[in-house]
Amino acid sequence: MFKDSKITAITHYGDAGPGPKGAGPDWQTERIFIPSAERGRSLRSFDVSVRLAHVFEYAKLHLLGDLQGRSYVDISKCRNCGRKTLLELHDLVRQIQHASPEEIPVEHGARYTDPNVLSVHPAVHSLLLKELPVSVRLENALQSRGWKTLGDLHGIDVTDLLKVQNCGRRSITELRALVSAASGGRFSATDSVDVRAALRTIAEEINAGLSRLSSRNRKIFEARLFGNSGNPRTLQDVGEQFRMTRERVRQIIRGTIRRLRRGGGPRLARALELGRLNANASFAR
User: Fold this and answer.
1) pLDDT reported for residue 6
2) Exposed, middle or buried, 166 (CB in 10 Å: 0-12/13-18/19+)?
3) How many domains does the chain have?
4) What digits encode the pLDDT tens for the residues 156-179?
5) pLDDT at residue 184 in the model
6) How far apart are CA 224 and CA 247, in angstroms?
7) Structural domain boundaries, residue 134
8) 280 three-class SS
9) Which of the four pLDDT bands, split at 50, 70 and 90, describes residue 275?
10) Residue 235 is part of a domain; what is its CATH number?
11) Which whole-number Å values give the CA distances from 168 to 92, 151, 158, in the listed order?
12) 115 occurs within a structural domain
C-alpha cells in the first residue's frame, strides 16, 4: 500500500516547492485536525480528483475522522500520492476547518452527514466478527465480503450490503445495533486474571444468553444439561418429553451453545479461556 522509496521530496518545504497559500513552512508534518462535528462524514461525498480518491482507498480512509491526527507526510507514502494530490487534500481540509457547510465542495445532492456510513470506534476495531453475536443471515453477508473484524466495517456504506443476497433492512438494523453496542464497551474483554471474576462473567453471560432464548428452547437446553435432579438427560429422553426426534434435540442444543458463546462476545471467550487454563493448571499440580 505504501511506497518503499524515499519521500524527501515532500518532507521539507524547500524541496517541495511553494506550499499551500496560508500554510507554514512545515505544513507537511503538521497533524491534520478535523472538527469533531465533521468526523462522521464520508469522504466519498466530496468531489475530489480520481487520484486523491484512490489515495483514500489505498490508505483505507473512509471518513473525515480517519484523517484526524495524521500528517501529510504519512499520507504521502500512499501509492501515486504526489505534491499536487497533497495540495488538493490540504485545500480540502482547510475548507472543512474554516468554511461554512454550504461552501464545502460536495457532489450534487450529497448529505452533510451520511447516515448510511458506519463509523466504528478505533478501540473496538480489532474485535473479531466470529466472536460477536450476529444472526446467521448477517454472518453470511459479512463473510461474503471477506470482513473479519469490526474495523473492516469502518466507513462502509450499509446500502452496499443490501445488494448481498438475503441481506435486508432487518440485517442492517442488526448491524447498526452491533456496532453501537461494541462502541459502548459491551464486548470489551477484561484483562483481569482473577479466576473468581472470570467465573462470575461466565455465569452472567450464560444467564443473559438463556434469557434471550425462546421458552421452549431454554427448557430443552436445561433438561438436556441439568435434568430434573441436576444430572444430564439423554437426547432420547428429552426428545420424548418434547415430542421431537433426538436429532432435533441435538440441533437445538448445538445451536443454543453457539448462540450463548457468540452472545457473550470476547468477554465470555476470554473468561472461558481463563477458566480452562486454571483447570489445566490445577490438574497439573
Assistant:
1) 34
2) exposed
3) 3
4) 778 878 888 888 888 989 898 888
5) 81
6) 13
7) 122-183
8) helix
9) low
10) 1.10.10.10
11) 35, 22, 10
12) no
The amino acid at residue 178 is: L
Closest CA to 267 of 182, 210, 196: 182
Note whether 19 and 96 are same-domain residues: yes
Q: What are phi and psi of 71, to 5 degrees?
A: -105, 160
Classify residue 191 by its DSSP letter: -
Cell numbers given for 24: 507554514
Q: Does residue 17 sit within a domain?
A: yes
**Residue 169 located in a structural domain:** yes
Contact of 80 with 7, CB cutoff 8 Å: no
Cell 448491524 belongs to residue: 175
Question: Pick from 183, 208, 226: which residue ends a domain?
Answer: 183
Same domain, 168 and 200: no
Spatial contact of 201 and 271, defined as CB atoms under 8 Å apart? yes
C-alpha to C-alpha distance for 222 and 202, rounded to whole angstroms: 16
31 and 71 housed in the same domain: yes
Do both 88 and 134 map to the same domain? no
- The CATH number that applies at residue 153 is 1.10.150.20
| Cell digits of residue 130 | 466470529
* Residue 161 CB-density burial (10 A; 0-12 exposed, 13-18 middle, 19+ buried): buried
> What would the pLDDT profile of 73-132 be if each residue is shown by its tens digit?
888 888 878 888 888 888 888 888 775 444 445 444 444 456 777 888 888 888 888 878
Does residue 247 have a pLDDT over 90?
Answer: yes
* 172 and 206 belong to one structural domain: no
* φ and ψ at residue 42, rounded to 5 degrees: -75, 135
Distance CA 53, CA 234 (A): 61
Residues 6+ apart with CB under 8 A from 245: 239
